[in-house]
Write the structure tokens for this entry.
Amino acid sequence: MDEVQTIEAAVLSFYRGGSEQQKETHKWLQQVQNSPQAWSFCWELMQLNKSSEIQFFGAITLNSKLRSDWAEVPKEAHHELKQKLLETIVLFGNGPKIVLNRLCISLGLFIVHMLRHPTVIEEVTNMFLHEQLGNLSKVTQIEILMAVLEGIPEEVKNIRTQIPRTVVCEELNRNAEFVMQTVVTYLNEKLSRSTVEPHDMNGLINAAKCTGTWVAHGNVHLNDREGMIQTLLKAIHYCYWKEPKDDGCLMPEENELAETALKSLANIISSYATQNAKYSFTVINYMKLFLDVLVPILDAEYKENNDNENLALMIYALFISTLECFSSAIFAGIVTDSEEVSKVYTRTVDMLIKCTDKPGTYPVDESCSTYAMEFWYMLQEEVLSMDSGEHKKRCLEAIKPVYAHVVKVLVRKSQLPTESSLHKWNDDDLEAFRCYRQDIGDTLLSCHDVLNDLMLDVLSEALDESIMYLSYDPQSTESWTLLEATIHAFCSIAQKIEYTEHQQIVKLLKVLNEIPYEKYSDKLFGMALETVGAYSEWIGDNPKYLPSAITLLVKGLNSTKASQATLGLKDLTSECQKEVIPYALPLLDACRTALQEGHLKNAEMIRLMYTVGNILSVISYENIILYLDAMVSPCFEELQVHVQNNDRTEPTKARVVLRLEMISKLFSSLNIRKPTEGDMDKGLVVGVGPHKLPFPAGGTPAPGAPVQPILLILEKTMGLLKSLCTLWIHDETVIDTLCKALQQALTNLMDDIKPLLTEMCCLVLSILNTNCVVSAADIAGNFILMFYKDQDCRQLMVQLFTAIMDYNFNQMELNVGKLSRIADLIETFYAFNTRISKKIPICYSEVQIDCMKLVDYATKCMMLPETGPMKKSVAFITMFVKESTNHPVMMNVILAQGENIVRSTFLCIGGTALRTQVEIFADIFLALNFRYPAEFIQWMKLLEVPNFPTAYVSATDKEQFMRKIINEMNTLFSRERVNKRLVQDHVRKFAALCRNIVEYENK
């Protein structure tokens, strides 16, 4: 069996074999594709007597070689390659389509490589236009030509070519108008006829695509695109109106042409988005064209379950895209003397109100209404961002009636499906509707920004209407949806409602307590509970409404909507902590009953413990002790049983985690010495890890002050927690949950933790030495930051610090070459060291650890593909460099590792890091230049190494980059002000050069 037959057998095996066989075959076929011999065998595979799978493999092999291995083709073979390509295109001109499409891409790739020849695009175009390709029909040749032209700009982004990118860009710009003129002429010629032949549709579709891909080139002003825009609109108009359909649905080819034309129109508009002011008049003219041609289509499709819904969607998307790009030009019509601009604005608003109010329920009956949400945000943002004055006032008054109407529409559109209609919904529909309701809630916030107190009047009217609708048929169990939607609207704007005793909110709370929920879906009750929780802050300012809120939420604890009830109680007891004191004991009894009855889900029990902690924090000390015994003891008693039984089964693990999470949540809210606003003002708050840890008021408790309840709990249960830790030491989930509970205790106790500090540190040490979970490192870091400077605690803190360093070094040594396996651990480790470097860098001098290894691993970790470890490693190196000059041990490390740091940084910029992340590496350059300017210049000379960091960047480019970076930073430092953005910009552009990417400038 010769080589080609072997390849053919492998291809058939890949397409027809099992998954394991496919994996191995795919790997082998990739190697074959990459070989120089692929230039020869790809043509043998593309023969008409071969199977379509083999033909396709030949075509994609040719694609791959043209895209990546052009350097293997000698210059004298270029003409022969072109001829082979054209002959093969003729061979497959009538199909299979999948092979022909790949060949069209290949011809486009060939043209890109040949762009040094200024007439290559014209020559190929004329060849197809003048029917010089064998016996292919003119229609087929035009279809192929349009497909080839359409792909050329796209292929430029991914191709490896020997032509400099700037030259490629120049050639595309130079040829753009020729291509556009060819395409538009063809479109106009076909569309000017009374009927377009079916066999012309593929050519028209490819031509319409072509306008969208080439529009970014040519350096043509937007106002010169009018002919093209009118042609594309003509295509859409033709497809929709050419003849009535029995079922109203467009044929697939007509639909594709119309949608392609819409995409190209959107591309044309967005290509000029950065020049808003320059094209104001032009855009108004284009919007008028869009409105004239496209709105009649939208009007015809203004119904439920229409057959051209996706076409309507794309029309709305074009309008929204145009508004996003040129909002100020169109919104100038809100208040203007120009009748034309005013009319465009008014027609646009009317059209988007109808979009918002599209008949049917999203997403089962319609899918357009969500598109308009962005517009209502844009419009209010435009008006509210205006400079205060008469013009802004007039604009605001002009849009208020619009927003009042939109609010009523949104309430109606946000109605939940009834039980009788749910058969039409699947899980994806329900999730889409959940997101849609969230979007409606966000849009209502924008409406409130415009309407302010008028918003409450509109919603109050809607509340009256929904109650009236409910009373029309008191026996109906499905008339609740409008009331629920109205309550949802009130809930959505709760964060905007200030402390004033608004009568509309008073009426809302009264209604919520009077609804006979048992008659209707429990979703109505759930929304009521969520709304009460949302108004917790307002209730705190108006505490006379607190009893009715508590009554409703306690009722919810014993319902199917306990989740919303526990959320509401959590918010209410947080926002109204002092106000809840008169109702504290009955509320605690209700919480205890709910916990004991066992009907609550795990998340609800955990959440309810937060409420318990909030309430316990404000009652008398005697009652705290009583209720702690009644409500917390069961958690520890159950844990004790599991420890005694040495039970490590999965069901037991679930119970252990639940009880620890309940304890953790209690620890997070129970504090009888919470900081006052005065403490905050005095700066008695420290930042540790992700938390802000408040010191007790005054720093330490007064002599004779009662012991913090959390400390009492820990004193009694520390032995149990140690035993629990020993039993589950190898289970990350249990240990992590235990550490988080201890972290919550530390967050609230701060200095009050001292009596138990030794025992807690020993417990954390035992974890660090065996199973260094993220939360164990976090709490150890917090201990070190809080107590390292306390001489009485120094030895313990040194042990913790050493344990963290030893464990992480050991893990990195075990995973050298595969550090991504421990990405989470690395992220935590370098976040910890960044905090140490910033707060107590003296640690690195006083504790015997290998700082050289610490920095060396950081340079390796910042080259990982995972964003977390990369960012944390960069942040550590930056902070370590900044602090190093004050500590000889740290300084010696930087002097020894400086060149390695710079080398690794350049490799990241050159290609290891994601292009979107490269700007972060400017921080390292800034720190090194600031602290070690002379050495930094020497380290930067690494760029003089040929092909470093990549072969794409020239020596001149590297020299210019070095000069810019050093001069820019030195200039900035001399002004004692570092503008990071300038340095980041240089790094970003250098990264593009390293990756052979052209950053195209907008017109």
